[in-house]
TrEMBL record:
Sorted UniProt keywords: ATP-binding, Kinase, Membrane, Nucleotide-binding, Serine/threonine-protein kinase, Transferase, Transmembrane, Transmembrane helix
Originating organism: Vibrio fortis
Domain Protein kinase: 78-356
CDD domains: STKc_PknB_like
InterPro entries: Kinase-like_dom_sf, Prot_kinase_dom, Protein_kinase_ATP_BS, Ser/Thr_kinase_AS
An annotated Gene Ontology molecular function: protein serine/threonine kinase activity
UniProt-listed SMART domains: S_TKc
Pfam families, A to Z: Pkinase (PF00069)
Binding of ATP, residues: 109
Transmembrane intervals: 340-362
Gene3D superfamilies: Transferase(Phosphotransferase) domain 1
PANTHER family according to UniProt: MITOGEN-ACTIVATED PROTEIN KINASE KINASE KINASE 20-RELATED (PTHR43289), SERINE_THREONINE-PROTEIN KINASE YBDM-RELATED (PTHR43289:SF34)
Name of the protein in question: Serine/threonine protein kinase
Amino acid sequence: MDFNLSSTQLFYRLIDKNASERDLILSDVRQNSPQLARNVNELLKHANNDFAINALEVHLSTANESTVCYENLRVDRYVIGHELGRGGFAAVYYAARHDSLFHHQYAIKFFHPEILGLLGQEALFSEAQLLANVSHSNIAKVYDAGIYNGAIYIVMEFVDGLSLRDYLSSHSLSFEQKLMLFRDICLAVEHAHQHHVIHGDLKPENILVCSDGTPKIIDFNIAQKVQRLSTGDRELITPNVLAVTRNYASPEQLDNDAIDKRTDVYALGRILYLDILRAQPRGDITKVVALATHSSPSRRYARAKDLAQDIENVRCFFPLSQESKVSVEVIKKSMIRSPVFTLCSTALVLSMMAIIVALSTATQDLNRQKLTLDEMLNDVTASVYPLNNDLTDWEAVIENRENQLKLVLDTPSRSFWPQRRGDLNSSMQVVSSSTADDIEYNIIDPMNIRLMQSEGDQEHDEIHPTDEVVIFNESVG
């Protein structure tokens, strides 16, 4: 047994062994290095629960205190500047090229030397190559990679900006502006996923916002020994080492299970809830948060692009992807989205309804007038002409017709129909002009009535039923 190994290296050698083999090796280690045995035993104690990752990170963070400082050193073609930040697995420094060929700013991330021994150069550079293939305006570009004094380093784009949390605190953004900012972050993550890169540790500190409001995602986690599993159209990653932040880590990460694109979707949902909305979601955005952060990966958005689309739907008052296309909420959002069109459409519909009601009322009124006129003309006919075909005193009938018609017109019960007095007077003149000879050869039957339009109809300004006269056409034969 090599007793010069670190506790982390020894931990990974023992993690896959059974209990009896572990005890045998630890017993040997304890005799030569009691402190090393205690450290490894502590790591193994938490290996099967969700504290394992934290224990490893604490160990590496403690080890980093004695790690060499890279400030003012020359590493390959780069001059290292001041330290920008430090985590459990790595430290980030500002850097620039020391030659005069290019004047550019960089951020160089130096991983703890033990990471190289644990995970291997091939795995680390493979992940770095995947990152280098990603080119997106909202993702910090990876330019180069190498090894310096046993520590692997990654040369990245230097982003001069504030963390997402600090940017939101120092800028008064409207709700719409926040949604647009978050949408751009989601689309950047989607682009990385399309290049088979999963971030694995999305949080506000890993999203920088430039002075012009452009977000930049940094610190994609390559410090993970990964096994990529192809399962149909899905790509799973089984990490052995993965730095996570508990408030933003998905349930499968905390359980140390396989992760995929939906793991990043969960972290995006947590960022939306905790930082964008300040834990105060309202309206449809509540549904978006619930779907993005569902405990079951199969119940979440399948892609970051789907999450971005629903963010845009909320911003523009479109229905969410999970909503019915004919629901009341969809109609309501359509009205909010196009108020002018909605107002014009409503006015048009109301106008058409008013016209239909008016026409219906006018038609009913005309029908009532026609029925009333028919009754009046029948009354006039019955009053003027005898119903008995055997009547022979035609001269007396003709002499009496005009008086009978005037009597009908002057009856109080007909006073509600003044506009038809002229029509009836005209009818009276036609009837009165008939001679006894006309009647003698024409049997007059009130049941045989034909309505004819009078010549004066076109002179009336108002709409009214056709002017009518009574004509009797049955021949005595």
